[in-house]
């Protein structure tokens, strides 16, 4: 996203609608967090899939996605592909790109938090369950180690 900052507001909107809106968090909060991706330093970093000026999807690398597990870092988070662009491998490519980027920062393992309905998707991309039903029933912490996964 640092190469295409014009997508920052779109990323904030999509991620807010998908993951934050129903919990009552204001869009402005997420917009501020997304802006942090434009600052110096490797993490946080967001990746954007696009076709020219058309936004297709996004994923982020963040320090932590589960406050009860501060020892786990970094995390792949907020994967979103616009509905009309799904089933084309965009999500898999975004997750793979984010994981590879996280490994370039020196991480040997990356983490991901997912709901039950998406667990098989990530396992199919080479992710392994570290903690099932954690931090709560229906949520799972998955991992991918350097050199493993979908490529």
Structural overview:
The chain is α+β, with helices and mostly antiparallel strands and 151 residues long. It is 30% helix and 27% strand. The protein contains 4 helices and 6 strands. It has helices at 8-20, 27-35, 90-104, 116-124, and strands spanning 45-51, 54-62, 75-81, 109-115, 128-131, 139-145. The chain has a 6-stranded mixed β-sheet, with helices on both faces. The two termini are 21 Å apart. The mean pLDDT is 92.
- How would you spell out the order of helices and strands? HHEEEHEHEE
Secondary-structure-based class equals alpha+beta
How does the major sheet shape up?
A: 6 strands, mixed
| Strand ordering within the main sheet | 1-2-3-4-6-5
CA distance, first residue to last residue: 21 Å
State the shape.
globular
Give the helix proportion (percent range): 25-40%
Count of alpha and pi helical runs = 4
Strand content: 25-35%
Query: If you compute it from the alpha carbons, what radius of gyration comes out, rounded to the nearest whole angstrom?
Result: 15 Å
What do the pLDDT scores average to?
92
Question: In total, how many beta strands?
Answer: 6
Low-confidence stretches: none
Q: Layout of helices and strands, plus pairs?
A:
Blueprint: H1 8-20, H2 27-35, E1 45-51, E2 54-62, E3 75-81, H3 90-104, E4 109-115, H4 116-124, E5 128-131, E6 139-145
Parallel strand pairs: 3-4
Antiparallel strand pairs: 1-2, 2-3, 4-6, 5-6
Question: What does this entry show, briefly?
Answer:
The protein is an alpha+beta fold. The protein has helices at 8-20, 27-35, 90-104, 116-124; strands at residues 45-51, 54-62, 75-81, 109-115, 128-131, 139-145.
